[in-house]
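Give me structure tokens for this 255-residue protein.
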Amino acid sequence: FDAALAEQEAGLAREPDFRPARYERALLLLRSYAERIEQRRSAWWRERGELLARDGSGQVRAAERRQPEARELEDEAARELRERAAEDVRRFSAPAAEGDDARAACAAGVLALAEGRLAEGRSELARALEGDPDLEEAYEAQAQLERAQGRLAEAIAAYARGIEHDRGYVPFRDGRAAAWLTEAESREASGGDPGPALEAAIADATEGLRLAPDRFRSWYLRARARTRHAALAGWAGRPRDEEMQAGLGDFGEAI
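Here you go.
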């Protein structure tokens, strides 16, 4: 996001009241915030694993079963991103210019999602899409909100609605591929068949790569789906060596 963010920063430096740049910068800051929180969450999980390994009991204390909320994971860098985004949302939305109501609602919804106000986020995003059914960032945020609440089927459906409106927006494909991967893990854990979900993830990531061949996330998601699909088939006595090699090749492309 750095280049896009720098472009909006330059636009606002030239014209501080340029509303499109204010809106785009708010969304880019919130994307960067979400990325920072995911990095912090990954570090939190690694720390939990190291604690369990040192403890040796394999027991997880009740206090450690709950994942921390985004605000609990904030460091100074994340807090600065969220506060800057909140200020941009405030300035864009008060008052919203004529024709900007849908985007104001979308920005407010994405901010609410980042801050854990999920009910408010859901309401604002629905209002945004009612005002502008082609607002791709609202579909993306809606899907992310559903995932945050563990509603994978609803998240996949939200991405599908977004794809109906914009088949060329690659984050819809990546987002749905990631949701399918989580669905596959859930099915496997409960004794179900993860195969169809993995195949759907592969299809979405492949379409993402057709649209944007240099996209790291699409390569990475397809690599995960392909290697898992091949491994499961191998354990079931149906080796898929070519698919495993293709998946490892995707990891190479991602790196």
